[in-house]
Structure to design on (1940 residues):
């Protein structure tokens, strides 16, 4: 079949017949429109023409192969068409937001001058596109839980011990048996390509260089295979599973990552429906206003994402996920399809921590999804503290991790004192890879390692095993938080 | 009798003989001056001339029929007079405040872009007249209770449960046996016409469309009949009773609404005298200053409203209400004049909740009148929490509702977890109808429904019956409130 | 002896021979220099010339008669001298601060538009001279206690009762047996003439008009006789005693006021040395900087007031007071010189309240001198609360009052609920008399009366006797205070 | 040997051969490069040329004699070279920061107008060089502990007692048996020359004049001998020991100060590794940016100080300190080399206070190094409060001091009420000597003495022995702190 001309593609610009061009190939997505997790509308915007620039940053390269039947892959466009698209892309006038980002990129300070995770976030907030920043930084409703996650750490103070030998000090630990140079892992987070063209691979390389472990999201913007291909020998990867509502499709995903060599499955249970991330939802409208100075969007709330419960970038990603998981059904099913260790990601109260232990999983990640799901979910540090006080036996049954709001090495140490084995960090790594690629990721680990070792030494311990609950105290006053009121 | 000329009306411009023209009819209000709840002074300002523009937004259409003897209805003006008044109205120079409102109206965002009740309030604050905003938004003294009502919710955090099937989720409930699509009703609030020419009917239509229930205030700016006329078949209305100090007049009012088909009586007990709403009282002075740039008002405090206890818009509305109600006398009286269910609106402590249960009423609305009455009255959410802890048996004796400070679906869910059957919302509906009419009201319900369903699913429940006190915790630290310090 | 010429007075301009002219009379103060409570330096600034303008606002008219031996009253100046002084005074260029005050005076709003004590303070802060505002508003150190006095009230919330007859509501009470129209008295405060030429008499007239009681300070800027002369028949006055270190002089003062008809003695015990009121101390320097744009003062800390413990306006006033009072010695002494009721002003903890009861005094005023003495003294409302909880029997032994930080009628009611018989108010009355004279004082009482009656009615009580501790609750969260953080 | 010419020195400008000129003498530091606590890089910047200006403010005069072998002292430069260096120094263009400081120096207010420690800090912040301010004011991480140290005092309120004789009031005490005019000492702090050319001697003279005691840091910028030489007869000095990791070198230091007449050894145990003082670390980069308007530094984190744990000014000072001290080894060793009283500086929890008492030391200084070491270490005032509540017996075993965050006389009194014998103050004295030399130090003591005496009198005590825990109360609400949120 001869390559397609633009003129041939152009008429297929409606829901009756909808073709799009992606990376110089033509696809018939007419039937797929209704299945698209992000809704038909966003595809129809590009019907009959090139959609590459919108498609690329939020889809892994194997998405078309996985989700669109071969018969709908209509083949390449001809060279004139490719040339025209390239020229158009070249000549396209940059948006105000793109120009702002370009200018900010040039003014990035050298990595060596960033001394803290806050320094890194400050740079990232300047160099990220409006869309990416909105997606990465947004949290649900009034962002109370997002801010409380961080503020919770500031209620815990130390009882430092003196006169203990600490010249030698080792911050390493193991997670599910795998060595980690510091008690920190990269928590699963979607769509790294939104912030940097190399996407999740920046995280993989940074983790490999520094000896920490990356948890890869089901919603990564690269294929699981590409990410695995970027590892060092012996570098473990974990997999964050968003379970599809269709068990067969879900099983296929688990078997794929097990085959690729992923070392554990982190079943995500706190994001069965999307949280209300207003900043993310409003982002396209605000961008429009920025670019044109006028307001044109006229869609209804329903139009944003389909059924009133799915909207925003996040909504699209999890539209097909299983909203009816149960302890009785889902854990046995998962055990039946994989021998990998299983961790439940998204425990938010003691009762469910107990149920997880009873279900025999290997670990739990106390998490409220970084404040992106239910606003007023308790901060993980508070839940951890409750478990330490009321059910300390749980720490013997499984490994306990927390994520959300960690901003300093002292935060990590506080969690470890209360019994956490390791701490997950998400946004800071996304910010780092967006602003500096893999070296940014390495820098985050360097900063944390220095802060962790300093805190350990000043606490009088030389190994993470020596950290204990007697070393922290939850104070009964309101400290001047490092997160401003 | 021949229609009146302006020249005939003009001389009746004093307290000796005071005539006014309203909607092209002449009324002799000389004797009525002393009975007018808003005081004589405000009428005398229009003595001998047309008063329609001042009269309309704060009086229901049947007010003259109800309160002024037929013999004082002097008949219509002639066509020259009507023409002159219309021309004068037409040529009247708009005030600065009116011009500001007109400009703001044109810049309203499309409803679809409002994602929260806060978004709606932000629009309303721009498009409302100074007078209306002052009346709607004002609260008493330093507005501590007004702000604390909202902040109280932010001290309650969730214990979300995972691994529970929630794909099907139903937020509906019943109130006094009447179905409500979400556990929210429109709390009684006066003077909707101040914000929008269609007034309370906007609320009625919005409630009808979305399947929730409206409580109509005794002080509505439309007649109870007009409001009832705007309902769908089967759409219930509740009635908020301000009891007149004269039992006979009060009985007449109750019998009227029962006859019209209202379904329950909500006896208001927390507003026997007006609260000190300084913003409302100061509004005319500030408006004057805005318009003229000078200060002309020279009245004394007493002049504002008569006896030192009645002033401001609110004062006028309740000037004749009963300040000597008692449990022994008032409830039996009310039972004797109606068979409708009775709810006490304005319970503010456990002791009175108990007395209400003992008095055998059908429900209580824990409320401090939106912070408009006694400043430093406890937030309803705190009173509800106390009842849950000290007298949980009360929830079996009667239905319990709260209002005041509700701003998010999570607030609604928190109240339901503690035992509330439903939650009343007032100001947000007034803001919505003012800014967008009935569609604004619909939008508020859409937003709340989405937030409520999302919160229920993320809590792991699929029916309001499954919400319980074990799902919320009152934290012992000060959270970053969604209402700023 | 012939009247003095300016030329004759001028050479007496040093500590060797120091004469000053006051109200056209010459005084030899050479020997008095060392006794002057405000220090010699301030007098020497005017040596050999007219001192009237500096002398007047801070000394009562009988000060020269009382404190300077007759032989040092050298007689009048001649008419040329009087003319020259008057001309100089006339031609004197007004200072920037005086011009600012004059402009502000013209822009005062009409009294009827002031609705709260905060409104009054806002006006006063504009129309007061820098010196007067510094003296009135200053508090010690970092003003923590000053602000906490007010914030303490905001931790107490009400349990309002409904369905109680309140159409009749009486806010009056008695203090030491004397009728007061509201449970509020004017707490003693010095130097009213600094703010208004009529000084303390404004307070007397305002109290007389409204039926409340004034406590007159030992350090009033008018004579005790002048103030008594301004009362209505039957209007009682109380006397605030600063006890002189010389018992004989102190006795003379007590006997004078008893003779004049004052009704009780309020012994001040919390101001034996001056607090560190930096704003007051810095005031002259700042004024200098304002006027000249340069800094000229070069004195040392000691020079400010003598011995390192006495400085600022306050220091001068109490320089000779008794720093060695004891329960054993001072109360019996006072009982021996007067039959008037005795109240201890300045109780700051339970232990001393108990000792006062044991000493048999008639009342105690829980007070930390408006935050002007020891910073971090507990707020009176907290001390009152402690007594209510730990020693409720004390309320049967003597009358208990509090002052400090009262800004609303609800504050008054809260104190009464906990057992206070009445509440003292100081600064607001000073501000009111400064800005509007006696009518300002009346306005303050009108405002408080309205707020008190409204609060009583909304609480469900019709007499102050019905207020009780069950009607207030000390909350365990941090409310949005009406005093900003 | 003939004096050196600049031409002869210049070629030695690399790590192969590195000579520097200091105060007109040439030193061969090639071998010393690797031993330099501040790293080789900073020396190499001046290799082959004059380094005096960088060297002087941070090294005591005897540093070269102590740390560089005599054979490396190569002798003087010739007069042409000295002349050239002097001319270059003269002609050197002043930096923007130097010009700013010069201007600020001219605008200092007279000392007599500074009424509080906060006033002094405000002046110092203007007149200090960027480098000095960064070093003095910086604290670790987010400076939570730095701010909490001060805020902790604001949670303690007084129970003032009245009717007690206080005309005579003596604030003096003894510390380790040595008389102190007020219960305050100068806590050890390094590098006074950074702020003022006379350095630590300003503190010595100020302490001598006012009768308080100075603790001299191991890292003083003058020699221990020079400082001792500035004392009055009978003026005691204490010595703050940073123990070298080499016991022999450490012993030498202890024996030196004992020989010089220092009266006690304060072993510093909370600074075995440097805290993360970002402001200090970033200071040179920020200065560069200020001076050039461009960013040139390209070093990595490691380059800042060597091994990732040593960096900033602080890092260099303690690079060789003992990180393996223990109770078992270190205290007996110290007892074996000196008969002087021993105090442990840096106790941060009850457990270590107990161990110190068991180890038989003479005193403990509860301190977290002014918030410069482990962020979230508890404020000393809180630790003191815990000891008072849980182990009051310790106050009988040894003398207890605290430092960190003291800003007012009331802070001192609060600590004494809880059992502290005296309170150390660091930064305020550094600020005072920087801004005004020795008279600034005197002023600080004058201010504190006045505040302490005033507080004692208003509390009803006339001797520090009469202060007790019943006079303070830790409140359960959040006061308006004198340190802003």
């Amino acid at each position: 079949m001869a390559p397609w001309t633009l003129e041939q593609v152009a008429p297929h610009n409606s829901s009756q017949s909808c073709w799009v061009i992606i990376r110089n190939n033509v696809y018939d997505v007419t039937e797929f429109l209704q299945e698209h997790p992000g809704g038909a509308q966003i595809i129809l915007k590009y019907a009959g023409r090139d959609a590459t620039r919108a498609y690329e940053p939020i889809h892994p390269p194997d998405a078309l192969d996985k989700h669109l039947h071969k018969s709908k892959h209509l083949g390449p466009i001809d060279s004139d068409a490719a040339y025209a698209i390239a020229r158009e892309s070249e000549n396209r006038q940059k948006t105000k937001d793109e120009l702002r980002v370009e200018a900010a990129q040039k003014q990035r300070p050298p990595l060596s001058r960033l001394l803290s995770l806050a320094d890194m976030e400050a740079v990232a907030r300047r160099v990220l596109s409006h869309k990416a920043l909105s997606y990465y930084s947004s949290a649900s409703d009034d962002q109370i839980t997002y801010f409380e996650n961080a503020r919770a750490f500031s209620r815990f103070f130390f009882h430092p011990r003196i006169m203990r030998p600490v010249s030698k000090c080792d911050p390493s630990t193991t997670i599910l048996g795998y060595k980690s140079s510091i008690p920190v892992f990269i928590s699963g987070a979607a769509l790294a390509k939104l912030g940097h063209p190399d996407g999740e691979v920046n995280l993989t390389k940074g983790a490999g260089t520094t000896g920490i472990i990356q948890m890869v999201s089901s919603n990564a913007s690269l294929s699981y295979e590409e990410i695995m291909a970027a590892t060092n020998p012996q570098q473990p990867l974990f997999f964050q599973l968003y379970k599809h509502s269709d068990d067969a499709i879900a099983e296929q995903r688990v078997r794929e990552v097990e085959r690729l060599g992923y070392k554990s499955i982190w079943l995500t249970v706190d994001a069965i429906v999307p949280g209300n991330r207003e900043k993310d939802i409003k982002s396209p409208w605000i961008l429009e206003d920025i670019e044109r100075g006028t307001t044109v969007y006229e869609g209804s709330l329903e139009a944003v994402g389909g059924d009133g419960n799915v909207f925003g970038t996040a909504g699209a990603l999890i539209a097909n996920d299983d909203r009816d998981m149960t302890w009785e059904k889902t854990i046995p099913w998962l055990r039946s399809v994989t021998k990998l260790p299983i961790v439940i990601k998204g425990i938010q109260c003691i009762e469910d921590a107990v149920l997880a232990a009873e279900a025999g999983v290997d670990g739990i990640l106390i998490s409220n999804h970084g404040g992106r799901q239910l606003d007023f979910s308790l901060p993980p540090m508070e839940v951890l503290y409750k478990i330490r006080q009321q059910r300390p036996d749980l720490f013997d049954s499984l490994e306990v991790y927390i994520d959300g709001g960690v901003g300093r090495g002292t935060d990590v140490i506080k969690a470890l004192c209360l019994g956490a084995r390791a701490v997950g960090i998400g946004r800071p790594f996304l910010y780092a890879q967006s602003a500096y690629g893999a070296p940014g990721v390495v820098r985050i680990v360097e900063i944390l390692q220095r802060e962790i070792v300093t805190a350990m030494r000043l606490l009088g311990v030389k190994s993470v095993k020596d950290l204990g609950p007697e070393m922290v105290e939850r104070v009964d006053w309101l400290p001047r938080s490092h997160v401003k009121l």
Remarks:
- The CA atoms of residues 370 and 404 of chain D lie 5 Å apart.
